[in-house]
Amino acid sequence: MTAQQSRPRVVSAGFWCWAAGAVLLVAFGLLLAFSPDAIPSLFRGMGALFAASGLGLGFLAGRARVGDERFRRAAIALSLAVVVVLALFALYSRWPIWLLIMILTMVGAVLMMRPPALEWFALDQKDEPT
Fold this sequence. Notes:
The chain has 130 residues and is mainly alpha-helical. It has five helices and no strands.
């Protein structure tokens, strides 16, 4: 990628939505997994799953921010899978924080699929030698 091709705003906004969602996923997932209260094992397992998916989403979002198309697609796929699981878990647990995380993750995925972002990632792929 050349210096004159700057990153579009939608890519930066999508990254920061993913980053905020990933931090919240890790924080509340660990809080749920290591809670001293007597909670069901299912909730502890889901907390560990959310923490792991938050770490994965943070890694993928960071690599997508620098222009790697493969990591962008993987982050979108992980985001959509996390949104589905969070929606079901939010209905079951009745914690509104999961809805905020779900919205941040979904908005990040939608922003990374906008036309300026697609064009920027496509330009980055053309610059690499084959």
